[in-house]
């Protein structure tokens, strides 16, 4: 088999805890801007904001809207959500920046560092470059390169997002390993010729999530990124 030269990572959910991070930032924001709204479940707020994520990108995937950075899409979704909750919108941008400072999972920094000993490591994320840069600085993520979605002008799971990322790195798809906790992401990557690694993240969707399991025979299935680092050195 062709040697793997690069590990490309899904970020939201695989590398960082988007739900916990957004819930925590939302609570701080509410304390500052709507202190009387103690009725709001910030975990539910995070879930509802995330639920707008895929629909916001669909017009772009279908060619009905020109490419637009994820920061803009997140803010549009947030304004809708604040209206649904009858919350003030004048400080929306402050809360929108919460996506830039999401906390890493406990194994992420050490795991990516271990994987980096064997191959190039970079995000293959729908995030924009400034978002991913800020996140990396805040969380200490040791990427070799940061390739935001605007580099390839496409959003996963369209084939262009995977193929153009490989091309930017001057690699063939089968030299790239897609690392994700989402089976649909891995299926799309494999359809483009990338190798695949499934990482269990049983708390991505909060404490009530019951499991995180592969639904296909991916090249690697691991409990954390440290384990993947060991396997890639073998």
From TrEMBL:
NCBIfam families: HAD-SF-IA-v2 (TIGR01493), HAD_type_II (TIGR01428). GO terms for molecular function: (S)-2-haloacid dehalogenase activity. The keyword Hydrolase applies. It comes from Rhodococcoides corynebacterioides. InterPro entries: 2-HAD, HAD-like_sf, HAD-SF_hydro_IA, HAD_sf, S-2-haloacid_dehalogenase. The keyword Cytoplasm does not apply. Its EC number is 3.8.1.2. It holds the Pfam family Hydrolase. PANTHER family: HALOACID DEHALOGENASE, TYPE II (AFU_ORTHOLOGUE AFUA_2G07750)-RELATED (PTHR43316:SF3), HYDROLASE, HALOACID DELAHOGENASE-RELATED (PTHR43316). Gene3D superfamilies: 1.10.150.750, HAD superfamily/HAD-like. This is 2-haloacid dehalogenase. Keywords: Hydrolase. SUPFAM superfamilies: HAD-like (SSF56784). It comes from the Bacteria.
């Amino acid at each position: 088999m062709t040697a793997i030269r690069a590990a490309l990572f899904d970020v939201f959910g695989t590398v960082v805890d988007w739900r916990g991070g957004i819930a925590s930032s939302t609570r701080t924001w509410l304390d500052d801007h709507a202190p009387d709204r103690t009725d709001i479940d910030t975990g539910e707020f995070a879930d509802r904001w995330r639920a707008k994520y895929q629909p916001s990108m669909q017009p772009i995937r279908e060619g009905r809207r020109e490419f637009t950075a994820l920061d803009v899409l997140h803010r549009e979704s947030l304004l809708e959500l604040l209206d649904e909750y009858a919350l003030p919108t004048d400080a929306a941008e402050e809360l929108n920046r919460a996506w830039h400072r999401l906390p890493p999972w406990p194994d992420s920094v050490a795991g990516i560092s271990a994987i980096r000993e064997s191959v190039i490591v970079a995000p293959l994320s729908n995030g924009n470059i400034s978002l991913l840069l800020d996140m990396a600085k805040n969380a200490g993520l040791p990427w070799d390169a940061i390739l935001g979605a605007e580099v390839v002008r496409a959003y996963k799971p369209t084939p262009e997002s995977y193929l153009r990322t490989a091309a930017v790195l001057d690699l063939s798809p089968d030299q790239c390993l897609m690392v994700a906790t989402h089976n649909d992401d891995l299926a799309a990557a494999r359809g483009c010729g990338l190798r695949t690694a499934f990482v269990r993240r049983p708390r991505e969707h909060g404490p009530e999530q019951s499991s995180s399991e592969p639904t296909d025979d991916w090249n690697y299935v691991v409990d954390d990124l440290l384990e993947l680092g060991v396997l890639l050195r073998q």
